[in-house]
Amino acid sequence: MILDQKKTTLAYRCPSCLGVPTSMVGAFSLSGDLFKLKCSCGGSHLNVEKTSDGKIRLTVPCLACPTPHTYVVSQNVFFGSDVFVIPCNLSGIDICFIGKENEVTKAIEHSNEEIMRALGDAPADSLKCNEDDYVDHAIFDMITYVISDLCEEGKVYCRCEDGHGDYVADILKDTVLVRCKNCGASKAIPARGTYDAEEFLKASELKLD
Ligand SMILES: [Zn+2]
Ligand SMILES: [Zn+2]
Ligand SMILES: [Zn+2]
After folding, report:
1. How far is the CA of 198 from the centre of ligand 3 (A)?
2. Which of 6, 13, 190, 205 is most buried when burial is the number of CB atoms within 10 A of its CB?
3. Which pLDDT tens digit goes with each residue over 33-43?
4. 3-state SS assignment for residue 117
5. Does the pLDDT value for residue 187 go beyond 60?
6. Distance 19 CA to ligand 1 centre (A)
7. Which ligand is nearest to the CA of 185?
8. Distance from the alpha carbon of residue 55 to the mean position of ligand 2, in angstroms
9. Are 164 and 175 in contact (CB under 8 A)?
């Protein structure tokens, strides 16, 4: 572990464009209050701050969750790791990569493969053929995951008084039907393929009617 160099490669998965903005971060970059790593698409950024006790706080946007995740790591981990990958603790998707440049690149490549598998890499108009069951499952997983997350955060609205809805998600052929068992309000979420899943990942609330 070479700490005297005090620099590391930092990268994260942009929820807007699925790109992986990467930057070299030295101790000097962190001498200010806040270091921001922005994605070139303008859709997201990651914040790095030093805490009062000298640790590093990372605020990382997540492609599965509506709000960013915060992690605190020691400077040893931040500047001294070969590679340190942080997954979203809910979805398991790797969202942040820290370490030596070549190791980080490898970790990102590995993560790219997982994302491609999860979202499917077929163009939207060819998704009628459901030969690849795995891809379809991944799309439904992604969508139901976002739904449960929205439920947990109280961001699903129906005709019931706030907080009194009781929601179930039914997986149909190419939609996920979310409905409230109490008032019967429902909403069909398209799940025809990659594009739908990606769109739904951006949802910050869900209104049933
Ligand atoms: Zn982006
Ligand atoms: Zn997450
Ligand atoms: Zn209801």
Report:
1. 26
2. 13
3. 788 999 999 99
4. helix
5. yes
6. 5
7. 3
8. 22
9. no
Q: Whose CA is closest to 165, among 191, 183, 139?
A: 183
Which ligand is closest in space to the CA of residue 68?
2
Alpha-carbon distance 52 to 64, whole Å? 30
The predicted model scores a pTM of 0.56
The Cα-based distances of 2 to 58, 73, 82 in angstroms read 22, 17, 10
Residues in the chain: 209
- Strands (DSSP E) found in the chain: 7-12, 22-26, 34-38, 45-50, 56-60, 69-73, 83-87, 94-99, 156-157, 167-171, 175-180, 186-190, 206-207
CA distance 209 to 204: 17
How many whole angstroms from 98 Cα to the centroid of ligand 3?
A: 44
Residues pairing with 175 in the sheet: 190
Nearest to 107 by CA among 120, 95, 97: 97
Helix 194-201 × helix 101-119 angle, to 10°: 110
Distance 143 CA to ligand 1 centre (A): 21
Give the ligand whose atoms come closest to the C-alpha of residue 95: 2
The predicted-structure confidence for 84-119, as pLDDT tens digits, reads as follows 999 998 888 899 999 999 999 999 999 998 888 776
